[in-house]
Amino acid sequence: MKLQDPLSQAGRACSGPACHSCGADAPPAPAPAAGPIHSKGAALYRIPTMDCAVEEAEIRRALESVSGVQALSFQLRARTLAITAPAEVLPRAIEAITKAGFKPQPVEADPGAEAPAHVHDHHGHHDHGAEAGQGRLALALGLAIAAELVEFLAPESGWSTGLGMVLAFAAIWLAGLDTYTKGYTALRRGKLNINALMSVAVTGAFLIGQWPEAAMVMALYAIAELIEARAVDRARHAIQGLMALAPEQAQVRQSDGSWHTVRAADVALDAVVRVRPGERVPLDGVVSRGSSALNQAPVTGESIPVDKGVGDTVFAGTINDTGELEFRVTAAAANTTLARIIHAVEQAQGQRAQTQRFVDRFAQVYTPAVFGIALAVALLMPLWMGWGWLEALYKALVLLVIACPCALVISTPVTVVSALASAARRGILIKGGSHLEAARKLRVVALDKTGTVTEGRPRLVAQEVLAGDPEHMLALAAALAGRSDHPVSQAIAEGLGRQGPEVEGFKALPGRGVQACVQGRVHVLGNHRLIEERGQCSNELEARLQAHEAAGRSVTLLASETEVLAVFAVADTIKPSSRAAVDELRALGVTPVLLTGDNSATARSIAREAGIEQVHGNLLPQDKQQAIEDLQRRFGPTAMAGDGINDAPALARADIGIAMGAAGTDTAMEAADVVIMNDDLRRIPATIRLSRKTHTVLWQNIGFALGLKAVFLLLAVFGNATMWMAVFADMGASLLVVANGLRLMRVRLEVPA
């Protein structure tokens, strides 16, 4: 089963950094209901004791063995879990959760209310609980400071000892009740998490007479935990924030022609929706009236507004800049391109990168190992080194604080989620941490030609008038081309961009061109074969045609009954971004290769224009797959970029499959590991740069966390490290690595123009 949130992986070894209830009041629980609400196949349950990532991870592990569970959606702040599964599977899922030590309570919807897909805190309740928790922690910190002052000012006095102990106990109670509760639960289950370790360490310090320090440690730990949870939330909700881009209401035309505002979720397919300048588009659709420029950055990452007119596609969440538009709805609210993007990235968050798996395995060994060292210090050092028993016990307690790899464990999922969010905001969907990390190793990127390197549709690239008045000849060609529905003729008409004279007797010449009478004279617009059949070729004309054909262009000629009047060359042109993307790939040490089914002459021409040196033409889909295998053997990790449909075998065989221009395309979004939502080829080198940057940040965090742990392990055993110093170091390191990971949400991936 794919887990949807890698931040939960932090809970495998510690819960401190991800806890959301660090002293804060729990949201009020709804009354138990007879049955859970269902939303799109999901049953919603409240789990009162699930308020941090360790509990979430335990529930996930408990449900992994339950066949039929399709998806899980956790809301830690609301302490709810949505289970997507058939009705007959739910009792087994609830039984598994109960055996893990939790008590799920079904959540009942208000009568007549629609069940939400996600349950969020009521704003007022959340603010009230957060403020109360902050106030309690502030009071706990004040009491801990007071206990330290009493110990400092009157260390030998009997009354000061009693007062200090009372102050310290009150501080520990206010700051650490939640920690003690969860620590006791963990110890009862035989688990060593940060709550269990802190509970043992603080209790031990209090009992050996270090009560001021015990109070300060618990207060600092709870405050640091609260701060860190806020930082982690930024990454956890980075993708969910995209949901706010699509408005909840839409203006829909009624049968009588009037306009009514209704919920976007209730709008039917084929309904006509109006969006005014400055408003966001609520649903996907096709423009039926009006024209405007739309800011599509939320979906495709394009920084420049795109002009839209009748027949063009619009996406939910995009911003209408200039004119009023009416469009026909083509996708329900739950199936818009934006909704599919969010779903794809949520699924990607559950696929852990290799570095994440390494950290998880390391954490499972590290904590018990340090706990064992702490026991050895407490029991053996007085015998081997002559230490006092209280001194040895104190050092062991310091080691317990260091024993949880909080910074190490939390840094990897935060970094990966930040990178995935950063990519999604640029119109790049990366389907998991494994693909994100693998992109940095790419040595070759194989590019399909049509629709990837090129525009994917013919354009008029050259024109030459051989006889007569140039303006008149171009008008004649526009008149004939404008009456034909052939793609080449349409490209000529669009390229000429003018209105031609009226024509009579228009008829198509299958496989050759068209013919019509213009101003009393018969003219033809056709291919090389038609002109040869009419006997109008010459050596000079043949040389011109061969030059165009060698460049991969389709040639069309305008001729009268007696002579050839003009030559038009049509070709599939490269995208404006292709040359820059190829240059960026080469600068990154990645070799671009062109794979195409077109003839070799056309392939070489396009490759030369794009700056690609290695070219393979005349390839069938299976040939492209074989070419990918050859490239992998010769160079190493290889990516394939194509349209996600015709190139499916090659995309599947490549180390990373990249679908280009996949906005609104279900098949392309499913087929590839990385989806580029627009046609900008420069997103591929941007993905590689993001992968390399993410890898650097991951190992920066791992190195910093492990290095700091190693230093404090030595200081704790052989130096003068104190418990509050260990807490500062541990939680401070966690905050620093989280902040370092969050930098990826703002990292620059584009090369300045």
Question: In words, what does this structure look like?
Answer:
The protein has 753 residues and is of the alpha+beta class. It has 4 domains: 28-120, 2-Layer Sandwich (Alpha-Beta Plaits); 126-237 and 350-416 and 694-745, no CATH class; 248-335, Calcium-transporting ATPase, cytoplasmic transduction domain A (Distorted Sandwich), CATH 2.70.150; 455-573, Calcium-transporting ATPase, cytoplasmic domain N, CATH 3.40.1110.10. The protein contains 24 helices and 27 strands. A 7-stranded mixed beta sheet has the order 15-27-26-25-16-23-24, with helices on both faces. The protein has a 6-stranded antiparallel beta sheet with strand order 7-6-8-14-9-12, with no helix packed on it. β19 (513-518) and β20 form a beta hairpin.
Calculate the mean pLDDT score and round it: 78
Residue share in β-strands: 15-25%
What coarse outline follows from CA principal-axis ratios? elongated
Domain unit count:
4
Cross-sheet strand order for the largest sheet: 15-27-26-25-16-23-24
Structural class: alpha+beta
Q: Could you tell me the number of beta strands?
A: 27
Q: Report the radius of gyration as a whole number of Å.
A: 34 Å
Q: Terminal Cα separation, in Å? A: 43 Å
Poorly predicted runs of 5 or more residues = 1-40, 109-129
Q: How would you characterize the largest beta sheet?
A: 7 strands, mixed
Number of helices: 24
What fraction, in percent, of the residue positions are helical? 40-55%
